[in-house]
Amino acid sequence: MANTRGLEGVVAAETELSLVDGERGHLVFRGHWARELARSRSFEDVAHLLWTGRLPAPEEAAAWQAQMAAARTLPEHVYRVMDALPAGLDMMSVVRTAVSALGAAQDWPPSLADAIRFTAAVPTIIAYRHARNEGRSPVAPRPDLPHVANYLYMLTGRHPAPDHVRALEAYLVITMEHGMNASTFTARVVTSTQSDMASALSAAIGAMKGPLHGGAPAGVMDMLEQIGTPERAESWIRSALARGERLMGFGHRVYKTTDPRALALRDVVTELAGEDPWFSLATQVEDVAIRLLEEHKPGRRLYTNVEYWAAAVLRAVGIPKPLYTATFTASRTVGWTAHILEQAAHNRLIRPQSVYVGPMPAAPTTPEEA
Ligand code: SDX
User: Fold this and answer.
1) What is the mean pLDDT of each run of 10 residues along the chain (370 residues)?
2) Helix residue ranges per DSSP H, the chain
3) What ipTM, to 2 d.p.?
4) Protein residue closest via CA to atom 13 of ligand 1
5) Ligand 1: which of 10, 300, 309, 332 to mutate, judged by most atoms within 8 Å of the beta carbon?
């Protein structure tokens, strides 16, 4: 029985939700190219596609958007739970706690209504706590605004710029779903025990929180801030790699070429960036990093992953760095809930094996010993 470290290459499920083709650098959501969806469809449309298997018809779009908007306000006790949390608690811990508080009932099987409820709630959770952290009065969700515009509005209290909405929407769409990544696998394992959606999502958020998974965009920003100028890139990266550090935003368990989402988001930032010197720095650091990673780990095929240019988009639209991973969570809640529904529909308890490598006791001398 093989022990596959990190379950690399192990197929854990069949899914109709997405294809992540690591050799070709292709990403497909339910039969559609994800990059095309990110360019042309709304958050609500692609959530509908992932949850139901089809995009909403034009005549359905307004009612569908209103249905998602109606789920943005939280039950009163969830606000109270957030107010009781210590100041300075990181946003992912706040989101994990508030999502857990949202799901009091033991609901089986989970429903599309549950998926909508949690997906609509996460932006409100983030924006409410962010405002309280800043000593501002939180603004209520605006049902007249689409999902992404409402998120930016709740974060700032001001009507968002259309180009910021479009850029953030492209990011949130293209990061919605990504096959059997660590947090999605976590959600499916919890669901396979017939536990409830809040428990599966709370566990998935815990997995997403880690720097090897969803925590990378903030690490990308820290790296670029520390490098500071294109001239310092080579020396900074060389010493980081020599210390055995991992460059945030590079490498991927599945993609052995550039992550297609990174390409899509670099296009988004290019449109937004104009002459921003920060964009030029990011571009030059990327080139140096790819070259030095190949030198450092020959043949490992370590390329740019989604997080590198995700950090650039989030910075360009004004999302504060402490909210980067929580914003990724707001997007991936769609993928998680879609996998939860799929797991529940064809459920079997997920229970892999392990190989015992510990010491064995002496042979039993009586039947009761063994
Ligand atoms: C996401 O799975 C998904 O789909 C995730 C995601 C999604 O949408 O859900 O795509 C989102 O998580 C993107 C990845 C974000 N994380 C980072 O950017 C953190 C930096 N990247 C790495 O830590 C790493 O590349 C992983 C964790 C992403 C993937 O690691 P693997 O596949 O387990 O590879 P590995 O750890 O076995 O590394 C192979 C070798 C190692 O060297 P050896 O010790 O074997 O000699 O490559 C090295 C690693 O040290 N390496 C890196 C590196 N990534 C791998 N060295 C320096 N910098 C890096 N970024």
Assistant:
1) 82 97 96 97 98 97 95 96 96 98 82 96 98 96 97 97 96 98 98 96 97 90 96 97 96 94 94 85 96 94 94 95 97 98 96 94 90
2) 34-40, 43-52, 58-69, 76-84, 91-102, 112-133, 147-156, 162-174, 182-192, 197-208, 216-227, 233-242, 260-273, 277-296, 306-316, 324-345
3) 0.97
4) 213
5) 300
